[in-house]
Amino acid sequence: MAEKSVYFFGDGRADGRADMKNLLGGKGANLAEMTNLGLPVPPGFTISTEVCAHYYREEEQYPAGLPDEVSKALHEMEELMEMRFGDAENPLLVSVRSGARASMPGMMDTVLNLGLNDSTVEGLALRTGNARFAWDSYRRFLQMYGSVVLGMKPTGKDEVDPFERMIEEKKETRGLVLDTEFTTMDLQDLVRLFKREIRRRTGVDFPVDPHEQLWGAIGAVFGSWMNPRAEEYRRLNDIPASWGTAVNVQAMVFGNMGSDSGSGVAFTRNAATGENVLYGEYLGNAQGEDVVSGARTPAAIAELARERPDLYGHLDRAREILEKHYRDMLDIEFTIQQGKFYLLQCRVGKRTAFAAIRIAVDMVDEGLITPDEALLRVEPDQLNQLLRPVFDLEEKAAAIEQGRLLAKGLNAGPGAAVGRVVFNAPDAEEWKSRGERVILTRIETSPEDIKGMNAAEGILTARGGTTSHAALVARQMGKVCVAGCSALAIDYSQRHMRVNGRVIREGDFLSLDGTTGEVIQGPIAARDSEVIQVLLHQLSDEKEAQVYRQYRKLMEWADRVRRLAIRANADQADQAAAAIAFGAEGIGLCRTEHMFFGEGEIGPMREMILASTPEMRERALSKLLPLQREDFEHIFEVMEGRPVTIRTLDPPLHEFLPHEASAQRELAAEMGVSFEAVKAKVDSFHEFNPMIGFRGCRLGVVYPEITRMQAQAIFEAAANVIGRGKKAVPEVMIPLVGNVKELDDQAKIVRQVARQVMDSRKLEIEYQVGTMIEVPRGALTADEIARSADFFSFGTNDLTQTTLALSRDDADRFLMPYLQRDIYPRDPFQSLDIAGVGELMKIAVVKGRATRPEIKIGICGEHGGDPSSIEFCHQLEQDYVSCSPYRVPIARLAAAQAAIKLSQPTPETSQKVRATARG
Amino acid sequence: MAEKSVYFFGDGRADGRADMKNLLGGKGANLAEMTNLGLPVPPGFTISTEVCAHYYREEEQYPAGLPDEVSKALHEMEELMEMRFGDAENPLLVSVRSGARASMPGMMDTVLNLGLNDSTVEGLALRTGNARFAWDSYRRFLQMYGSVVLGMKPTGKDEVDPFERMIEEKKETRGLVLDTEFTTMDLQDLVRLFKREIRRRTGVDFPVDPHEQLWGAIGAVFGSWMNPRAEEYRRLNDIPASWGTAVNVQAMVFGNMGSDSGSGVAFTRNAATGENVLYGEYLGNAQGEDVVSGARTPAAIAELARERPDLYGHLDRAREILEKHYRDMLDIEFTIQQGKFYLLQCRVGKRTAFAAIRIAVDMVDEGLITPDEALLRVEPDQLNQLLRPVFDLEEKAAAIEQGRLLAKGLNAGPGAAVGRVVFNAPDAEEWKSRGERVILTRIETSPEDIKGMNAAEGILTARGGTTSHAALVARQMGKVCVAGCSALAIDYSQRHMRVNGRVIREGDFLSLDGTTGEVIQGPIAARDSEVIQVLLHQLSDEKEAQVYRQYRKLMEWADRVRRLAIRANADQADQAAAAIAFGAEGIGLCRTEHMFFGEGEIGPMREMILASTPEMRERALSKLLPLQREDFEHIFEVMEGRPVTIRTLDPPLHEFLPHEASAQRELAAEMGVSFEAVKAKVDSFHEFNPMIGFRGCRLGVVYPEITRMQAQAIFEAAANVIGRGKKAVPEVMIPLVGNVKELDDQAKIVRQVARQVMDSRKLEIEYQVGTMIEVPRGALTADEIARSADFFSFGTNDLTQTTLALSRDDADRFLMPYLQRDIYPRDPFQSLDIAGVGELMKIAVVKGRATRPEIKIGICGEHGGDPSSIEFCHQLEQDYVSCSPYRVPIARLAAAQAAIKLSQPTPETSQKVRATARG
After folding, report:
1. Choosing a second label site near B484 at 20 to 30 A (CA), which of A460, B179, B217, B686?
2. Cβ neighbours of residue B132 under 8 Å, at least 6 residues apart?
3. In angstroms, rounded to a whole number, what is the distance separating the alpha carbons of residues A708 and A693?
4. Distance from C-alpha of B123 to C-alpha of B796, rounded to nearest angstrom
5. Do A821 and B693 touch (CB under 8 A)?
6. What is the arithmetic mean of pLDDT over B219-229?
């Protein structure tokens, strides 16, 4: 235990420092730091967290020396403030607040205006010249003290707060509506009533002695460390109970002591745009709570500069000192008491993505921070805001005002989309071909809907989560998507849906905000974001594009420090082009099955599946070959020699088959067989658990002709491109491998075909054959598998399903209760389950490198675009991550952050000052 | 490389020994050992496996000294046999055979009668006094030599063996049917034709020089080591190519040289019953191949004893020497040439389960082997033969003769069953109640069929593998089951099925042989096995039950040495009683869901599932409580204080719901809601991948009232039993745990209920709460989970499904090709996948014991009854295995074998002699 328990701060001198957060809590350390900076902080002292630990260890006793230390510190406060605690004429009032090592907002108790009693209230009235304010403060203090210290909280049988009940009764008696209408006399009356109620309910009088008040409040704050809310919060945030809280006792200052007083809140830079100007609000002759209560309208900070340059000068100087010291944009609270400027609080300010990037880039230009620090200042997920189409905010607010908000679903694909409702994929295509913008609205989507989804501006589903088929495909396509909007009652046959009592018909306009999940009736103006306009549409006036220039600078820094390569998951040439615009260095996952849903392809694909002899199958495959080859050729062309990882056929075959009788009849007619035969065959493909059924490499092992055709398409496409003097680097990836013999079987076919193509074309193709690691057994036997694999790519979607025995399509029944009850800390399909799935990945990396040290290792599951998962991939020393094209910038930034964080031996140390400020 | 390449054996002196198998191959080492034992083995020599290695290393060259060594050994043979190689009057003939370290039956080449040519054939005719035999031997030699050494095998365009073609032509010309009808002249003619054909096709003459013949044959045998058949066999059996084969050259002896000659094969004890008497067949004046060819009827060995006691004496002495030396029952081949007795072969004899047990037990009594050795002599799976009902073998053979064999399916549940066909479970129950024996015949079974399965003698399904629902449940119930019999075309509506052109109607008799998978039309007499009669039906004349007494003795020895405890999977009191009779020490898995399909239970169960409020659910559960409690009470009573591991509700809820409209209508009426409401609710329970969906502990987490009811039923049942002065030890097992928080959530409920029951009954119940480890994440985080678990039980069925991403119900599409192509060495649902699933089990054991060293660990998947999996569990130092009741004896024996094998530092050493004999 430290020698002392009480740490004083005031008048430019503090016992504590910012790096003493563990001992003084975040708030205490921060107040000490500001004091040491010479900033005008009302004096006070912090009782350390060690006292809290002692308090609980020793049956709620304080260390022996504490009363003396508190007395001494209080005396120093009196000296500095030239006021006396309990003095009837010039009373020192104090606040008593908790302050733990980690921020626990609102979890513990606070008491303000402590020191008031029947005599000091008169002194306060005199000093402020405002008797009503003094009595209102007294009334509030009694209420707070009664509740926090004396435990007069609402009980089971008496569920209204007893003080609030008295206030309500008083208003009723007096025929008033608002608290602000109370007169001084009303407030004096309430003080009497409050004191009587306290005596009645607790059996003791309200303590008039300020010292007794102080010790009561200190005990209450320590006690609140163990209240159920705080315990729950600590449990959820992994904060050990042993940390304890500190107690901060600080002199109260008042901004309502005349025209040379006032209060305000400000950001040191514009929190919306990042512009380097003070940004905030000020209210003359008012307390801090008045600024935020809305009872009076505060003025913009800029007005203060014009009207009271002297007061503004204080603020501006504080801003300069703080930004220079904390090296970040700060959110500050200040009070001016009779011309004297006080800082009450400072913390790192929240900001939009636009502001985050501008501030980070500007601060590097200003020499405040390094590029590495700038990279750490932007949350990777925030970049989404820069890439998404945006609604005109005013127009959207107006629409909601008009009651046009229909429902809210899951914000599965961010951005803004406007279009007319259609209820099936073919309609979406047809309407689009007529020049209509459409919102494809489905109960849920399936692979058959791909083309319709591609044609739509946005996708809206009634079922499915943020990792449902709709959401996954939408994000990969960069489409706006609101999923799982359960308020929709869709009736396909009537071509309408009911939503909260309203009927939306086919052709009606909807606006989807995929960033918020809002579904709005009617159109709202939307446009591409500036960054997208530059990146994808080669906007001509690039010089005007300030946001883009900042984005580009940040990305350049990121690319310089990151160690992970970034690839994209792209199945088509247009997706590949977008991926490159976003900075992808290759394709990490090209799913060939999506190609089979194309116009000319689904027919032969179905013939192939329903073939009853190898010859029939070969015939169907020979129709697919040129189509696949053409697709691959386009992709290789676009990728200009960057590696393209192509996965052989993966999904269960029934996904390609028509399940409705009419479509089956059509297919039967095309194939020249009976409807019954087609139906029976389709039914025979039914599986109980298709996710772990006949799919992945199992298809290619049983039907080697499929793999042969795909390999032929790949290598012939590459040969065509190379024949034209360009480059093409295919990497063939075998899915669902759990046993090295599966890979051997498939790799042999691929290598044979590659050799044949290269020999017949008389050229060499640089290629690799590798495997997905997406089955636990694949990870567990990675040493064997690595002997036959040029690369591993973690398919963490399926690896999560199998490792957790968790069907993604069925998890909605229990995922929400699991998250709510903290059984899963996060949705494991969004953020990698490090302890389980991550453990298998670690095993796979270690075992794989043991037998093939040079093996290339990547990830191509959805987690490849999730920042915390990317950090884990970096720790595993993987070679690359692959994600949907629109997440490539996020992955670039996240990879850079991982590299920076992990190159710092203790990231806390260098980030110490800022971290404290955040607390 | 050893100094010498050639190892001589003959006249009681051999260069080799039984333990030189690696150098001499199994056959060579064995011939040497018999020679050293003083047994009369025709002399010969073995060219070592090192020569084979040299041959392949040095481009098919032999070591320099080899010809001299071979000459020397050949000379010794001539001396001993008093014959000369190539001598026209008294020619020595030899056999040339391969012989690798491991037995590779039929994979490599053999040449007999080597040394014959146009002059020596006359000497042989003279010596045997049988010109026809001499010329037939010559004809055979030419044929063998031409094929093996000169490569005259059938080719693609000429698919008949060239020699067989000439034989057929000859028969045609002569109007003969059988080879045996050829005269000496015919054979002489064939020899001429063969030699001409050899010249025509190979361009060289057949070599008349016996030394040239010998070197040709030696080269051919070495060459056959690398033939494709042998390579394939080695690949399948993990035999390295580097081992090589030895070549054995041995003097030919002839049993057809008059009335004092003969040949025979014999087992040293009765291979069917195990009785300690010579058992086999003898044919006077005949070669070995005549004994097995069936052209003449051999006499039983006993006749030889009567008729030729002098010859029998040779045999009996050999038997005594060999059994004493090899300490096992042996299978021997012998030839008597003109009164001289020769042993040509000895190896450990194959035997029935009955014989295996009797021989093992008798040999302990005779002081030949120890009880530990006896335990190793019985294959655990053989015990099945002792427990299964059996068909009268003659009656079955007659039925097949009559063409009554309908089809063959998978032998999923061994034994014999006879009954009348019914096509659904309710009919099975109803017919059974009328006293009929029935065979329940279904396309596939589901949990709804449980009661019908219980009522049936046997279960026959058209779909599903040996681990399908039907097979699993049948084995647990001890029912006969033939599964996946794809020849059945069942028509439920017509109540008949078509099988290979025949129609079988409801009520027709079928006989199922679950041991072979045969489905036979009409009844065949079947009866309980003797062991079952004693164990389950307390057969009164136990003294007469010899087989049972031997079984009991073996089991007593097994129980003494095994370290693993053996439990049974049993859901009902009758199964529990059977389990105890078979020696189970507790229940390792009591599945509560099977109870819910009971008469009074399925209704409330469905109400519970379809409840729309917690209150409705509680009401339904309160109806289930007394029924469950009663079930548990019966089980505790039967188990008499042995531990009973009860798993809380596990399967997806839709398994309990009716899926047919009529049943849904009925349920709607019962529940007083609309049909549409029931249908919609049932549909809403549909899952895409139910195996990894809403099941296991997820049910109890979302509906804690279910767990609460089950815990209450368990502890009240235990309290009732304890209240009657007996013991009850429940172990509550939470399924599908992947995260310790799931277990914590459920264990808390169980412990609370236990406390409440114990307090209100004023008694203490000894109980545990543990978990299944059946999800990879459960194994990977076993350290965390062990903190909250009193025990782990590996659910290897589901752990296999998830670790391999392999749906048991869907695997039939590719499991067969996978097994055929050796991608999976064995069906992973039958024999534990050690490299994958076993690796996770190892991780779980190590991590679990790290945080809770005393944790009890068992297995309750199907693998708990598989001997090789049990050995692995023993290696992991698990505490127990649990399997279906009828496999308990198998598990006891397998556990004993594991303990014995693993207590021997090198099991090979002490088993050396026998192992060699087996080769």
Report:
1. B686
2. B182, B183, B184, B187
3. 22
4. 68
5. no
6. 88
